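Technical note accompanying the year-one report. For the benefit of new consortium partners, we illustrate the data format agreed upon in the data management plan: each record pairs a sequence with a structure-token string. No post-processing was applied to the example shown here.
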Amino acid sequence: MADFIRLLPESIANQIAAGEVVQRPSSVVKELLENSLDAGATSIKLVFRDGGQTLLQVIDNGKGMTETDARMCWERHATSKIKKADDLFDLTTFGFRGEAMASIAAVAQVEMKTKPAGEALGTHIVIEASEVKKQEVVSMNDGTNITVKNLFYNIPVRRNFLKSVSVETKYIIEEFQRVAISRPDVEMSLFNGKNEVYKLRTSGLQQRIEDILLKSKKGKLLDVEEKTEIVRISGFVGSPELARKTRGNQFMYVNGRFIKEPYFHHAINNAYEDLIESDHHPFYVLFLEIDPSKIDVNVHPTKTEVKFEEGRPIYQIILSVLKKALAQYNVTPEIESTAFIPGFDKVSSPFTDRPVKQPSVKTDSRYNPFIGDSVKKKSETHWEKLFEPFRDEPDRTAIPEPQTEITELTSKSESVEVGYVFQVHTRYLVCMVNRELYIVDQKRAHERVLYEKYTSQLNTAKVSCQQLLFPRTLELQPADFELVSNLMDEINQLGFDISPFGKNTLIINGTPADVPKGEEQEMLEGILENYKLNQQEPNLGKRENLARSLARNAGIKSGTVLAQEQSEQLVNDLFLCSQPNYTPSGKPTFVKLDPGKLAGFFE
């Protein structure tokens, strides 16, 4: 029998390894930035074009490499980080596997210039698909300059699986943010082509977080600091106002390495229980320092998964530390609602040495300005008017005629017969529609009505826009600004008038007529949050996603008091929709009360 097992050529082995290490352009960004930090760089510059597919360049002022090291670093399993197996349990660097550089060179055209301090000349190397094309000396500054061109040029299938330029740009920005937050002592800059996205100077952690993540003035960063025998926890968590529907602003580091740990994320969510809505995620940037021998980072080539020897105790420590931080800043829920102004309790009165006491405010969530003694008296005086909508009702003892289904009725008729509408708990509408009894969720109903309106607008000509007397500006995070730029035409087609206005900033010249005055910025921010959340659904088109997002943000909220005419109009508009039964996301908008079941309640 002939032998059939063969050793793969090095170039093919590198391409196979690249499948795990280099998943997309942002994977290359992560490896190159971390290598720069391991080299002791104090200044790092990242440049990319076309979402990183045509160009990725990282320039640093680290210690550089000698001619031999410059050639050796592109070989598989060549590393300066470890020498023996025991070193895996005492890691203080980002890289250690020796696979990243070889994997990158296997699927791209790579050029590197590097020079260590004290040397007169550096080394210039050009590699394509793991093959060294050129090596020569070069005059340059201390440090390393690596350029990666035409990623996956030799693997067309892999290149076709990359997302759009805007999506890949978003991933690159997120990867840059993760690295930049972990090292505020390093000067870092990011350029999308010639456009400057970030230029971060050395600073403290709080300033670095604010420079990268906090463009809005809402909310506050809460300091977290605790040291135990098991773990030392430091960093910042956000006040409840900083919570978002998407998971974007959540960063956890172990010994300086960014990780994804759902177990610890669950502990953080528990700390915020009853402080934020159930579908929102808290803001946090937390650093855990643990004995390297108690963790294993050699789980996956991307090194974002870590095994913990003492996971349960760390979970409890995180939970208690965050609850303590939230309580100290007086955001923990109490029986009585308390108005709080940060630092107000520490301010002294100019007329006395006694500190000013913080006022206590009691609220009654059941209070309704439309229900009072005057309303009750009026209702008692004219109680018979409540029954006027039912005077023309047929005899309930007679056999009722078959009723038209809602979907048939809304597709064939231009109006519906809406009886008197009652609002219950400022959330639900009890109504008679075509002589059938329904309970309607007002928030979901309005979302359905607006969705169909905006969908129609996106499929027709541009609608009228209400111009603002004083245009407003809105500064966004770079990834969000890139997203808006990609959606600019569709957003304006919905009735907005927005355009770029400098670095990561929009100018709002006009809005749709139904956007409340003064809420233009909040509306756009809310649309973006919902749009990013909806992107998790497969096969959801850009236009439909945008219509859903705007409908969800522009709709009335639960707890809104509606006038009688408004309630009736909302019910009428709902049942005239092409699909009144459900919201765009598939949640029911109403329930129909069967007369037979109602009668059963009294038997």
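Partners are asked to follow this layout when depositing records. Residues 331-352, 365-381, 394-413 have pLDDT under 50 and may be disordered.
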